[in-house]
Known about the structure:
Layout: E1 2-10, E2 15-19, E3 25-30, H1 36-46, H2 58-62, E4 63-71, E5 76-82, E6 94-99, H3 116-127, H4 149-152, E7 157-158, H5 178-190, H6 195-226, H7 228-241, H8 256-265, H9 279-330, H10 332-335, H11 357-412, H12 414-440, H13 442-466, H14 469-493, E8 503-506, E9 511-515, E10 520-522, H15 529-549, E11 557-561, H16 579-595, E12 601-606, H17 613-616, E13 619-623
Helix pairs in contact: 6-13, 7-8, 7-12, 9-11, 14-15
Amino acid sequence: xxxxxxxxxxxxxxxxxxxxxxxxxxxxxxxxxxxxxxxxxxxxxxxxxxxxxxxxxxxxxxxxxxxxxxxxxxxxxxxxxxxxxxxxxxxxxxxxxxxxxxxxxxxxxxxxxxxxxxxxxxxxxxxxxxxxxxxxxxxxxxxxxxxxxxxxxxxxxxxxxxxxxxxxxxxxxxxxxxxxxxxxxxxxxxxxxxxxxxxxxxxxxxxxxxxxxxxxxxxxxxxxxxxxxxxxxxxxxxxxxxxxxxxxxxxxxxxxxxxxxxxxxxxxxxxxxxxxxxxxxxxxxxxxxxxxxxxxxxxxxxxxxxxxxxxxxxxxxxxxxxxxxxxxxxxxxxxxxxxxxxxxxxxxxxxxxxxxxxxxxxxxxxxxxxxxxxxxxxxxxxxxxxxxxxxxxxxxxxxxxxxxxxxxxxxxxxxxxxxxxxxxxxxxxxxxxxxxxxxxxxxxxxxxxxxxxxxxxxxxxxxxxxxxxxxxxxxxxxxxxxxxxxxxxxxxxxxxxxxxxxxxxxxxxxxxxxxxxxxxxxxxxxxxxxxxxxxxxxxxxxxxxxxxxxxxxxxxxxxxxxxxxxxxxxxxxxxxxxxxxxxxxxxxxxxxxxxxxxxxxxxxxxxxxxxxxxxxxxxxxxxxxxxxxxxxxxxx
Length: 636
């Protein structure tokens, strides 16, 4: 996988294309604050980065989507991610398109068709990363890790603050947990642990868990058979006490088999029959009793409702009579004669006319009739309530009689109850005996478990032989030795410190070590920024040479941010710049890419602007003359 171009879609509808040459060195030279470092951030973000690390400013304020056109062996893939909204650092909106001769869309009218996880999965599969799982060794608590494209990018980027670092070697290694992720996944990317070996390791891990479980069950079974004899003797004593075993039965308490056989036969125990005399009558009486109780509840409710209604009726009669007597006592409607539209007292005109006297008299007559009707119905209501109370009393007496008859049946069946109680006690003892018998299962089941355990142990041993640690160590040493040869040779070419000694990559410490005769020297123990940059470059180029020759699933590009920075004491003080060293550095990178015959792409952003022809022919964009990543007419 290499990068054909970066495409930036502006909020103003304009599009910025930044093309790169496949299998070649691509140099972007320019001044500070022109957007050079953002090129790497855009690539990382479009390849599934968790957050958009592009600094707030002109780029974030003017861009809608970021896009990459990727070149694979037989196809192209266009990926785009939406620029996060202000105040946010990421977004899940991703767009992916695939085609053999695909070109970047001219407009960003994208409809998201992937989330970040789907984008990672698509790119991982396209680059050739097969299903894999690194399982941590026994005793370590971290989760198993599956390598994906994000892990492969640790070997494709060197940002401005990484390429000259002495305390760490790889991209993002200074972040939490990244060093361990590199340790876990680098063996896969180098092919030290192949896909088949990873599958076998996973199978071995599962078998080991099963083996522990089976051994625990076998041990429990043996404990039951050994210490379980005391439990068997105790159960036999209980069986004798409840009469399941005759007290005169002779038992050899030292024979496990005899105890087991005796208790096994008790599972066939059948309870004694209990006479059911009177049981049918009892069931009938209990059913009738329940019905009569329900009837009693219903009658109680009816009586309560009838009494409540009678109280409301009495209240209505009392209130109506009271109000009628008040009006009649003053003789208001007989003595006063008034006009409907005027006040009878002051003769003033009323806005709302008073009702006529005849209408009031009619209302009084109707009230009289209603009171008379209600008074006439009161004796009937009282009779209804009395009837309900008599019925309730009869039900109470019937319920008492039913309870008395039920108690009589119970007293007549005390003997049956005793038999039931004995059967219940015996059933409990038989239940405990059955549980013990099922738990021990004699020696036959123990033998089966021993056979299963032996089979598991044989398979684990077989896998161990296939994954022989010595064999893995030999492969690891072989790979690292081949990488070390290139690193040592290139250290001499760049005249790095201690370059007369072998350089090697230490996968356990995730750093570079120089094997001096007196003592080994690590990366952070050597001085000078030019040495740190040189060590980073020879390590990355040696790794990519191995990835390419071994056809490992790692992207075939590197992004390098200002590799010449250590040779610029001041950006404005060119007289102190060691131009010869800068040229040698670039010449080294150009030669490495040439040796790999277009199988590796290098994208470099830098202040360096050499006049040498061998440098200038690889410049894809020059941002020294008022040109930036984001054109000025987008925001000015």
